[in-house]
Design a protein that fits this description.
Blueprint: H1 2-33, E1 57-62, E2 77-78, E3 83-89, E4 94-100, E5 107-112, E6 118-120, E7 130-131, E8 136-144, E9 164-167, E10 173-179, E11 186-195, E12 205-206, E13 210-215
Antiparallel strand pairs: 1-3, 2-11, 3-11, 4-10, 4-13, 5-6, 5-12, 7-9, 8-9, 8-11
């Protein structure tokens, strides 16, 4: 009897063992079928992020110095190269380029070393540039990555005879508009030309022209 009872208890234990093992495999199957890792515990949450990007406008000019060399009155001369203006901006609506010389009246930025005598402004205006005719210091837009205006003529180089010119005003005046958001730098090329009357005082003349880029804000 002892031997039989012991054998019976072993069989019962084996049956319970098979039953628990089957239940375990059923749970594993369900976890896998449902895409849930068995016996894993965790929680998730989110972090909300935000930022305000401020507007930036950067401008550079190349070259920064223009030399007309020697001028014989009555024979117009152009600068030895054009000036390429490069603007980088995050402005959504683009930017404006303006020019000025801070000189009142009809005088240009070119001032004699005597501190009093100036070469005059060219008579064409920013609103109505003209093909070169006359004397003074003038500027023209010969190239633009964005929307060169037809008023500046059909020239494509800094010394093209088809360029139209304007005198440089005392106060900021917009000479080029570049609308729309830009990815990367946007370039505009301007050229300078000058002549002087026969009675222009001999000597060296120099001065500064200011170019400003302003974001368009609607």
């Amino acid at each position: 009897m002892y031997y039989y009872k012991r054998k019976y208890n072993l069989r019962v234990a084996q049956e319970y063992s098979h039953m628990f093992r089957n239940i375990f495999f059923v749970f594993v199957f369900l976890f896998v079928a449902l895409g849930v890792a068995p016996f894993s515990y965790g929680a998730t949450d989110t972090v909300s992020t935000s930022v305000d990007v401020v507007m930036v406008v950067n401008i550079g000019v190349t070259p920064e110095t223009i030399d007309f060399g020697a001028l014989t009155p009555g024979t117009p001369v152009t600068s030895t190269s054009g000036v390429v203006i490069t603007v980088s901006t995050s402005a959504e609506n683009g930017y404006l380029l303006g020019i000025q010389d801070d000189v009142a009246g009809t005088g240009s930025a070119l001032l004699h070393t005597d501190g009093a005598t100036r070469i005059a402004d060219y008579l064409g205006t920013i609103a109505t540039p003209t093909l070169w005719s006359g004397t003074g210091l003038g500027m023209s837009v010969y190239m633009a990555d964005t929307d060169k205006e037809v008023k500046w003529g059909t020239g494509t180089t800094y010394n093209d005879p088809n360029n139209k010119y304007a005198g440089i005003p005392e106060l900021f005046s917009t000479f080029h508009s570049s609308p729309g958001y830009k990815v990367g730098p946007d370039q505009t090329g301007i050229g300078f030309k000058m002549d002087a009357p026969n009675d222009q005082k001999v000597g060296n003349y120099s001065g500064n022209v200011i170019i400003t880029a302003t974001a368009i804000i609607l």
